[in-house]
Design a protein that fits this description.
CATH topology of the largest domain: Lysozyme-like
Strand content: 5-15%
Number of helices: 6
Radius of gyration: 18 Å
Helix content: 25-40%
Length: about 240
Amino acid sequence: MPSLEARLTLLSEQQAALTRAITAMSAGRWTGPDSVEAWLLALDPRLQGQVSSRTPLYEPIGESDIPAPQLQWIGSRNFWPGHGGFEVVALVIHRMAGTLEACDNWFSNPSAQVSAHFGIGLAGEQHQYVSLSDSSWANGVLEPGHTWPGPVGNPNFQTISIETEDNGSGATPVTDEQYEATLQVANLAVQTYPSIRWLLRHTDISPSSRPDCCGGRWVDSGRFAELAQRLGLETTL
């Protein structure tokens, strides 16, 4: 009989395959690489020849006027495979309270036990730490006074997180380059998960420990509202 560790590993792999299959189904990718077929076969090879192409349940999202991001993969081991069976319902904007380089190093450290999906530099650099199909560890548990609008459950499973460089100061303005780069990765997330409805600040989830995240550099400047408007998302403000 397989060990408990082996069974847990298998369950984790099966959960990740199901999450990716659901994502592919939402995008209308029924056959071929990165499709419903591919991921169901990863889940159970006995399904070979039993999955066929079909019409999506809705029209695919049209071409966007927002350019595709130019991502640099950094990678972090700090994540959970899949999204725990939850829908992804929100994007969360953070401030790094530091530099992009420091963020790269921290998220690459397994003992840090923290990560985000993306890190955006002041010059527009776009670093990716966690796959969109997996859950980063950026948002923690809901704190008293939160304004989390999503379903009950761990927000990490239900969100895509974007860290933004501020050189350690909440007074550092969001540059045009940083705004555009953030818009591009956020749009990629929304295209990947049409279930995303909300654009949130980290303080919406953790008002006690993160009262100034993502802070005035985004909100008071109007950049946060502009980002929500461009993406067609709601906020709690």
